[in-house]
Amino acid sequence: MMINQKMHRQTNWIFILYLFFATSLIASEKHIAIGVVNAIDNKAKIISISHEPIESMGMSAMTMDFPVKDVAMLAKIKIGQKVKFVLTVDDFGYLIISEIQ
Ligand SMILES: [Cu+2]
Asked: What distance in angstroms lies between residue 24's CA and the mean position of ligand 1's atoms?
């Protein structure tokens, strides 16, 4: 009985470790993209971009809204501007812009 419990606990540990590494792998995923800014919503921390195809994601050209990591990143961005940006998957699995220039 005791041995059985011990093994069970060990299995849980391995599973937790596995989850941790799997999550950090997904979180470190990055995609570089280029597009033109259509709209900026500072309050909602969202930027609308008509982006070129993003090969690394298998995504074709389209217009879409992206949440940004930090609203301060949008301070120098203007509507109509061509931007290069980095897409990252955040801790919750959402696609966000982590860098923009
Ligand atoms: Cu898209």
From this structure: 23
Q: Determine the distance separating the centroid of ligand 1 and the alpha carbon of 58, expressed in angstroms.
A: 9
Residues whose beta carbons lie less than 5 angstroms from ion ligand 1: 59, 62, 64
In single-letter form, the type of residue at position 83 comes to: V
Q: Which residues contact 73 (CB under 8 A, 6 or more apart)?
A: 97, 99, 100
Domains and CATH numbers, the chain: 30-100 (2.40.50.320)
Q: pLDDT by residue for the chain (101 residues), tens digit each?
A: 566 677 677 766 666 556 565 655 555 689 999 999 999 999 999 999 999 999 999 999 999 999 999 999 999 999 999 999 999 988 888 899 999 99
